[in-house]
Amino acid sequence: MSSLRVLRLVVARSLRQHALSTLVTAFSVALATGLVLSVYAIEAQARAAFTAGPTGYDAVLGARGSQLQLVLNTVFHLETSPGNIPWSLYETVKKDSRVALAVPYAVGDNYKGFRIVGTTTDAFPKEDVGANGRLAAGAGRVFDPACREAVLGSFVAAREGLSVGSKIHPYHDIVYDERQRHEDEYVVVGVRAPTNTPSDRVVWIPIEGIYRMKGHGLRGTGEMYVAKETEEIPDAAKEVSAVMLKLKSPGMGMQLQQTINTQGKVATLAWPIGAVMAELFDKLGWIYKVLTLIANLVCVVAAASILASIYNTISERRREFAILRALGARRSTVFAAIVTESATISAIGAVAGLAVYVAVMLGAAAVVRSETGVVLEIFKFHSVIVAAPLGMTALGALCGLVPAFKAYRTDVATHLAPSS
Amino acid sequence: MAVLEIEGLVKTYAVPQGGREAVIDVPSFRIDEGELVALRGESGSGKTTLLHLVAGILAPDAGRVLIDGDDMAALPEAARDGLRARTIGYVFQTFNLLQGYTALENVELGMAFGRGIDGAAARVLLDRVGLGDRVDYRPAQLSVGQQQRVALARALANRPRLVLADEPTGNLDPVRAREAIELLLEVCKETGAALLLVSHDPAVLARFAKVHDLAAINRARATAGQR
Asked: Which tens digit of pLDDT belongs to each residue from A147-171?
């Protein structure tokens, strides 16, 4: 007990005497710990959110091409559309016995950078829609497919200050350019409750609105068709960017994939959506490895700074060690005091690193939320939150071994000056 | 009963010309329980080396240093540290107080490796040396005389059987020096500790009934320069 009190006293006094270097060193450890935690957490959280987050659908049917592009475009609203498929394919897949729900998407326009998705009212989950089309959660109702009405994702409404009754003009293309404004005016009739998914960043309008928007043309027949106000659009002319699918059972995805991807030649089925995204993360895994390497190197540098800062004080503290030894302290006590001091600085930094981690994650989560609509769970516990600070503390203790050995070798008689 | 017995104690140092030169060669020396003894020695006569050997801070090349019958010289270093902490109090010429610590903490550290930290006892000791109202002062905040008293309290912190004092008044003015010696003698008598004090100051030596010449007990030829 006495030994512990001595260690505590010696360490506390040394930290006080070298307060500035202690603070600077602990700060570097805090940054290193925060960096390691952030790199790990952002990767893990992003992977979880993009590969296992709620999308509401099992598969996406789109133009022949990249499954990843299809998923990014329709689920995460990030990429360009790989192309269109004819309306007839939507009708076919809708009637397929393996499909429980098919929702057509027509994309290619934006509202001030937020994607506009032309669709049917099937895009709104039944549990979210009450009597007369009222949105059970959120405000207003779903759009009337025959009118120029829009339903907003919660993030769009909040960011642009829109509410039920507001009027908006779509802009052509997926990148916002104020010169590309469509003359068509849409009235906001509903604002969806937050879902913490990319859907929060979407403006939903009737698919007919996309077809009839001025400047748009349809090539379902291979020939350009421009819709006229008084004329019903023939199905043959219609196109969709993608069809979002819910399957009757997960196993049917395999069969459907076989039918569309292997035997067919006109379309691509992205299934399962999580696996497609996981493939992206696997492909980008090297970035994570590089970031992890950099973060670990920063930890080593921070630990080395502990070593340097304590090592530099040893010479000036040799008399202190000699006095302690003259009072009866063993060499091992002096050794333990330095290792404890090193570990303590590291532990202080590691604990402060948790605050750095929270700050970084708050920033990162805000950016990811703003850019993709995906929500990172900042405070979700993971073993690395414990392991990283503990590892950093252990590394600090390890770095204390070098100055501790120097202190251990202090010759008592030489440093108890002066002699007579 | 002897608190300290020295038998054939030899300490040598390497010299630039090659070979080794003895600085301490004491065939025999003894201090009994509660005895207050002064050693007269000039600078460079090996006084500090002798006290370091007695305290087990230095290991001799030959001979025995018996503290209460335990041979300090024959013990491994860790055991020597323990024996020193339990049985010996050491007052240094420059006090060797730990600068970052309060007076109380300095005394507590004096206890830490012996009987264990006892804050209340440390306060009593500081009170005894007249620093009851300065327990939270650090050495730099105390006068030289007060620092000397903290050093004395620390030396007595483990209720040692033997107190070693190395020119304890070397840094004090005559008035403070006399006060310090009186206090040292008083508290040693109170606690029953034996005292071995080395000094070259006649005023200090005059306070002792028993004074030895280091040159008389040390057969090694003291060389110039500090040891």
From this structure: 999 999 999 999 999 999 999 999 9
Can you read off the two tokens belonging to residue A190?
Answer: 């509903």
Amino acid identity of B44? Answer: G
How close does chain A come to B109, measured CA to CA in Å? 7
Q: For residue A167, what are its two tokens? A: 């009027």
Three-state secondary-structure class, residue A318 = helix
Chain A residue whose CA is closest to B112: A2
Hey, is the C-beta of B170 within 8 angstroms of any chain A C-beta?
A: yes
| Chain A contact present for B201, CB below 8 A | no
Output Rg (C-alpha) for chain B, integer angstroms: 17
Contact partners, residue A405, CB within 8 Å, separation at least 6: A335
Cβ pairs bridging A and B (under 8 Å) = 100
Q: Do A418 and B226 touch (CB under 8 A)?
A: yes
Put simply, whether B98 touches A (Cβ < 8 Å) is yes
Where on the phi/psi map is residue A166: left (φ > 0), alpha (ψ -120 to 50), or beta?
beta
A370-416 pLDDT, tens digit per residue, is 888 788 887 888 889 999 999 999 999 999 999 999 999 998 888 88
Give the integer Cα–Cα distance in Å for B45 and A415: 19
Nearest to B188 by CA among B43, B88, B72: B88
